[in-house]
Design a protein that fits this description.
alpha/beta, globular, 11-stranded mixed β-sheet, 489 residues, 11 strands, 2 domains, 12% strand
């Protein structure tokens, strides 16, 4: 398909195919990159997936990859593959803003661990993607630099907070992208943009160099157009990092080698609490169709109750803002980022934060500070932690009987730009199905599974216990194959 004809989710060469062709010399990294840059030039103005496109830097990287191949060296598993990075991942000497005025112009002195690992594997960074400011949002409308639009329908949101990364992959701007997921910020935009998005087990991927939002919740994960590409990217960037105190001292599960194992004999639980109130009928119908597809492929599929997940939203919006309140206290106009001059230090800090933070960030800082304040800590934050333990316990009970669980990813397909910005609660409800996995620290991923009644993509979520990436990816691969077969017929 030519660039002129490219539409969201057109069948492009996969990351695996691209890297193999570049490593063998059948394709040049420069040629691959120019295809991406042409598409960016054609459609970025209407989509706004990027805060920064690094065309010349990317060309230099691509030339180095080609030189390595010409010299008989192997550039790595992602040789010449264009990758987009969410703009909350530190990149040495490259502006990293979190889509916030308070960090506008700030250039980190180091690369995030995942950025180092992608570079070592031969990937070509094409740019830094737009996000909800400090990853706080579900629509990528909270960016200080303007919203991102859904490539499938420019009047719709791409989801958030990693909407720029999801849109970049869906529009063919990059073969792969990285996002961060604190309460669904990879999976929800993946669902709305019709791409694969995955949140790993907490601690499986290093957070060193990820600008923190909720430190006990944040995880970095892949966006791709295929389950196999997501598996490859996870294997490249995952694994122990002594620089991250929360990093698991374990090998990344060998997900790629099990993608063709199928689901025969596997036990799959359809979460009943995520199939009722608040879930659009067309999304629920596609999720049930996914369950039927797994049953047809030999899985044992039953409904399962995970009672405490209904409290996930309430617990999350105490835990996450509390951690954000602590993490964002570092933006004081003294150490880095924006500074608004004022007569005293206190006035300078207040003026800097007033000018530098957007409304949603201020809202969450105030919520979190209140929840942590004397006299309210036990009633709010302490109770939320108990609910978090309850959620983890209910998931553990479910996984005693099932290998993986199934649910919708997002309660609806992509919604209209501006339709929920005036009502924070309706916006927060978009994370209904994704938040529980973050609270539990478990892996989960969104797989495109057909379209809703409006013709827009629907994502189905596969959930697994800690370090259960292998059965999760096996299930996702079966769903992907079925969805593609259905689309062809």
């Amino acid at each position: 398909m030519s660039d002129e004809q490219h539409s969201p989710n057109a069948v492009d060469p996969s990351a695996i195919e691209t890297a193999a062709a570049v490593r063998s010399g059948d394709l040049s990294a420069v040629e691959v990159l120019e295809t991406s840059l042409t598409r960016i030039e054609e459609r970025e103005g209407e989509i706004h997936a990027f805060n920064l496109v690094l065309a010349e830097e990317a060309r230099e990287t691509a030339r180095r990859v080609d030189d390595a191949v010409a010299g008989g060296a192997d550039p790595g598993a992602l040789a010449g593959v264009p990758v987009a990075l969410k703009d909350n991942l530190c990149t040495k000497g490259v502006e990293t803003t979190c889509s916030s005025r308070i960090l506008e112009g700030w250039k980190p002195p180091y690369d995030a661990t995942v950025v180092q690992r992608l570079a070592a594997a031969g990937a070509v960074m094409v740019g830094k993607t737009n996000l909800d400011e400090f990853a706080m949002g579900s629509s990528t409308e909270n960016s200080a630099f303007g919203p991102t639009h859904n490539p499938h329908d420019l009047s719709k949101v791409p989801g958030g907070s990693s909407g720029g990364s999801a849109a970049a992959v869906a529009a063919g701007f990059a073969t792969l992208a990285l996002g961060s997921d604190t309460g669904g910020s990879i999976r929800q935009p993946a669902a709305l943009c019709g791409v694969v998005g995955m949140k790993p087990t907490y601690g499986l991927v290093s957070r060193l160099g990820l600008i923190a939002f909720g430190s006990s919740l944040d995880q970095i994960g892949p966006f791709s157009n295929s389950v196999a590409d997501a598996a490859l990217l996870l294997e490249v960037m995952g694994g122990h990092d002594p620089g991250d105190s929360t990093s698991l001292d374990t090998e990344v599960p060998a997900v790629s080698t099990h993608l063709d194992d199928g689901v025969s004999g596997m036990r799959v639980g359809l979460i009943s609490e995520m199939m009722g109130e608040g879930i659009a009928p067309d999304v629920a119908a596609r999720t049930r169709a996914a369950a039927e597809c797994l049953a047809a492929a030999g899985a044992i599929v039953e409904e399962v109750s995970v009672p405490a997940v209904v409290y996930g939203l309430s617990a999350y919006y105490l835990v996450a803002p509390a951690e954000a309140s602590s993490n964002l206290a570092r933006y004081d106009g003294v150490r880095y980022g924006m500074r608004v001059e004022a007569p005293t230090v206190g006035e300078m800090i207040e003026a800097t934060r007033t000018a530098g933070f957007g409304d949603e960030v201020k809202r969450r800082i105030m919520l979190g500070t209140y929840a942590l304040s004397a006299g309210y800590y036990d009633a709010f934050y302490g109770k939320a932690l108990k609910v978090r333990t309850l959620i983890r316990g209910d998931f553990d009970a479910a996984y005693g009987n099932f290998d993986v669980l199934l649910s919708p990813t997002s309660p609806s397909t992509a919604f209209d730009m501006g339709s929920k910005t005036a009502d924070p609660l309706s916006m927060y409800l978009n994370d209904l199905c994704t938040i529980p996995s973050n609270l539990a620290g478990h892996p989960a991923m969104s797989v495109p599974f057909g379209r809703g009644g409006d013709g827009l993509p629907v994502g189905v979520q596969v959930l697994a216990p800690a370090l259960g990436e292998v059965p999760m990816f096996r299930t996702a691969a079966v769903l992907e194959a079925a969805a593609r077969e259905e689309a062809r017929s």
